[in-house]
Amino acid sequence: MLDRPRRLRRTAGLRALMREVTLTPQHFIHPLFVHEQDTELPIATMPGVSRHSISGAVEQARMARDLGITSVILFGIPDEKDPEGSQAYAEGGVIQRAATAIKAELPDLTVIADTCLCEYTDHGHCGPLCQTQDGDWTVDNDAALELLARTAVSQARAGADVVAPSAMMDGQVGAIRTALDAAGFEHVPVMSYAVKYASAYYGPFRDAAGSAPSVGNRASYQMDPAGGEREALREARLDVAQGADYLMVKPALAYLDILKLLRETFDLPLVAYNVSGEYALVKAAVQAGYMDERRTVLETLTGMRRAGADAIITYHALDAARWLREG
Fold first, then answer.
1. 277, 204 in Cβ contact below 8 A?
2. Angle subtended at Cα 87 by Cα 195 and Cα 56, rounded to the nearest 5 degrees
3. Which pTM does this prediction carry?
């Protein structure tokens, strides 16, 4: 007898009945770039995305909430930068003020603060620089830990529900967990960028955040794209041991195998970051008339869910939420 799996795909109702993967607005985390200016500044390399004023970020967060999105993640662009990125941990820093403003207006929305220094340093790296014996510039790992811990505490004090360290410094999760606990923020989770690659897909983000390195690159602290499964598992295990509450894979699309590996290995909530370059590629193809935006985006996000993501940081969040509401 001929086997006929097409029977189960014949109608929309039959397809829906057999669906294994769900995609809803609650799976999305809406990223927001917040700067010190009172104007909205469109980002040329990311069509449809802007740098927002603090009041504009509040309105964006409200739009997300009204579409059923329950979480936002904040990235700050200060007016002034210095070698140590001091505006990252300033009590009146742009992310601290944005977190406070959003929580005041939308107390039920989950506010995640990106905890890094690269947007705040004048050299674009994720911590203070030092020179190697070869004369190359690199980040002073242990000096960065203290500043990242101070940043996380200031973000929690400002009202952030979750801190998300993205610097890829050795020991950052443990340093932040210790500092949060000592400051009375035992209840604040750490969303670790546990597996973060030195990826070409970050180009538009660096334009958006003004964080391109002025010397060297990040290959000595972000992961090698050809590093393989063992390096990914080692990085994730270290963060779990240090007290991470979430694990993240960044970027998502080129690393779905790693996402699936972490899902099969760990029982923590798993986040995929659908990064700026992935977003920009879709936008460029759509503008050229090569692809259908709605179908492409929803298929991509569904693939990340199928690989094991519990949540997805995506610049498509608002559009995707609207499309899902439309059915």
1. yes
2. 85
3. 0.95
